[in-house]
Amino acid sequence: MPVSRLHQSLIALSAALAILGSTLGGAAIWLHYIAKPLATLLIAALVWRHATPATYAAYRRALLAGLGFSWLGDVLLMLPKSTLALGFELGLASFLLAHLCFLRALTRDARWARPLWPLLFLLLIGCANLAVLWPGIGAALRPPVLAYMLCLVAMSAQAIARARSLATPASSLAALGGLLFLSSDTLLAYNKFYAPLPASALLVLGTYYAALYLLARSLPAGAGAALSGLTSSSRT
User: Fold this and answer.
1) Neighbours of 211 (CB within 10 A)
2) Do residues 210 and 153 touch, judged by C-beta distance below 8 A?
3) DSSP structure class, residue 79
4) Which pLDDT score, from 0 to 100, does residue 49 have?
5) DSSP string, 142-169
6) What's the pLDDT tens digit per position in 66-81?
7) Of 88, 86, 69, 209, which is closest to residue 145 (Cα–Cα)?
8) What does the domain layout of the chain look like in residue ranges?
9) Which residues does UniProt call coiled coil (predicted)?
10) 7, 63, 221, 234: most buried by Cβ count inside 10 Å?
């Protein structure tokens, strides 16, 4: 998928400002509020502007839906409780829907959990992490957190299984994106339910934006040209 250098720079700048605003806090938190959803929108635009033939239309639609729910989750999770009491729960639900959309995309051209070992391996890791985090998770949050973990593991495992099955550069990007999403949410969970992590904004948001970017770039290179209206000289 060809992407203009300007578009990539805007994504990187927005992600960096989101991380900076979260790290500084205080008055700078507004920088985070603006840049965090903007970065996700810019990543979604990569997929939106990508012309896709019928063979990848369903993959593209599911990917866009997943990025849309991710954007909504961004907005809901960053709102303080004084603004939205159930912001975390609603944000968790939005990201669960995002992973279901990504999972749908990843099963369009590959069988579910074939091979099976990525799912079993990531389930084992997920259960181990959940055992550590469980005491710090409130009783009301335990069912949704468990459901979210299972959905996230399923998406990440399917991305790996699909890459093993298709063995294409594009499918490898999706697999790495799935693993980075799993890493980002694991770091977020430890930061929230276990103990504050040093440089948590950099670790959590850095892996998150990398995951979204790789998933967006996972449309096969031959699937179509970017509808950017830019001249070929501006391509990377």
Assistant:
1) 25
2) no
3) S
4) 85
5) HHHHHHHHHHHHHHHHHHHHHHHHH--H
6) 999 999 999 999 887 7
7) 88
8) 5-234
9) none
10) 63
